[in-house]
Amino acid sequence: MKVQQLVLCIAGLLTATPAMAVSSEVDLTQSFVGYVALLIFALAYCLVMAEEYLQLRKSKPVLLAAGIIWLMIGFVFQELGQIDVAKSALEHNLLEYAELLLFLLVAMTYISAMEERRLFDALQAWMVSKGFNFRSLFWLTGILSFLISPIADNLTTALLMCAVVMKVGGDNTRFINLACINIVVAANAGGAFSPFGDITTLMVWQAGLVSFLEFTDLFIPSLINYVVPAVIMSLFVPKTQPNTIGEYVELKRGARRIVALFILTISTAVAFHGMVHFPPVIGMMMGLGYLQFFGFYLRKTLPRSLAKKKAIAMANHDEAALKRLGSVVPFDVFKRVSHAEWDTLLFFYGVVMCVGGLSLLGYLGMVSEVMYTQWNPVWANIMVGVLSAIVDNIPVMFAVLTMQPDLTLGNWLLVTLTAGVGGSMLSIGSAAGVALMGAAHGKYTFFGHLKWMPVIALGYIASIICHLLLNHQLF
């Protein structure tokens, strides 16, 4: 393969969107506007990758880049007499983004509600109070990351487990670094076999390429991806006991019922998608209605609940309980909505619109021709995972979906797996890794993660082989 083709291939994969792009007969890949658009997006994404060092939120550069790219497209297509084509593509991308925005917003609202009701604090306190040694905590945080991330998403899960590790690890930098690497690998692997575990899997599911139950075919490969490096790294974790003090965390009223409502919301989204073939976001928005009604119930019954608890606390002479009751505030759904990761959601918009424009200019069609026509699709999908470690898995998967390659179910599952777990090879390859570098600043670092990349790569290779062997009938 020529060097020029490889460069174009990598450049195209850096330009990604979830939308099934509206195509144009105009090829502007060799035009001045096309080159400038590529340059603008590349510069914006360089600023995104340097977010930790520049302290510049990642949404800002891509929002600006999206506006400039589409402004240039508007002028060019107007001169060519095809402004309706550009407008149709723009509206198509906006519709795709709106579906994802609302879906993620509901999921983030539920997670924020669980956090406000202190569910995650209670889990953290339980783990600290049990007196586990460092090696036991290494395995416990990894296993819980793998099991929670399919529901709560890999980023939230990683941050939760990192808080536990930081609390028990103290000044033991070696343990914190290894435990954080283990959490990132486990959270990304757990998110790969569930539509709710990562934005990449959500995109594949919403595109109708893999059904909800078909994602379970990736469970064992994902498990292998986590277990192989975890077993090796655990040998370097000491069995010594951490110096920690346990604390009691009382769940706020309605905490467990919110978990039940979240499960019901997920079931509703799956039912809308599977039974009537509507976008899952319709079910998620209905689930937001569940939470709003429950919030209304909590507010209306708060005075009666407080009076009852106050009577019990006074009868037991529990001063601490009386003090806690004084700080109780009503549950507010819209306040939970405001706590969503708006920077991530706006970054998502910028990427979608930037790459929607680049796709209209013809770049992703060129890359698709190289990767999925001249290459074997299996090798192309493996390369997607490698690139996701460098670029971040979200834009890479968007690129693949926009290319619309003609793949078998086995290959769609393969690219879902590789894009999901490939980002674990570098700390900057996934949202979980980037977030933990900030949460455990100075203790979990890029180079600390890089030293274990060969071990993580073994898990990556093993998971691919496992998928090819177990699900060979799907190819």
Quickly list its features.
single chain, mainly alpha, 24 helices, globular, disordered N terminus, antiporter activity, sodium
Can you offer a commentary on this structure?
This protein is mostly helical and 475 residues long. Helices cover 74% and strands 0% of the residues. It contains 24 helices and no strands. It has helices spanning 3-13, 32-49, 51-54, 59-79, 83-116, 119-129, 134-152, 154-169, 173-191, 199-206, 219-234, 255-275, 280-300, 302-315, 319-325, 333-338, 342-361, 363-374, 377-391, 393-403, 409-422, 431-439, 446-450, 453-470. Helix 7 packs antiparallel against helix 11. The protein is globular and about 80 Å long. 46% of the residues are buried. Mean pLDDT is 81; it is low at 1-23. This is Sodium:proton antiporter.
- Total of DSSP H or I helical runs spanning 4+ residues: 24
Q: Give the tally of β-strands.
A: 0
Largest sheet: none
Report strand %: under 5%
Helix content: over 70%
Mean of residue pLDDT? 81
Set down the secondary structure blueprint.
Layout lengths: L2 H11 L18 H18 L1 H4 L4 H21 L3 H34 L2 H11 L4 H19 L1 H16 L3 H19 L7 H8 L12 H16 L20 H21 L4 H21 L1 H14 L3 H7 L7 H6 L3 H20 L1 H12 L2 H15 L1 H11 L5 H14 L8 H9 L6 H5 L2 H18 L5
Helix pairs in contact: 1-18, 2-4, 2-17, 4-5, 4-17, 5-12, 5-13, 5-17, 6-8, 7-8, 7-9, 7-11, 8-9, 8-22, 9-11, 10-20, 11-24, 12-13, 14-15, 17-20, 18-20, 19-20, 19-21, 20-21, 21-24
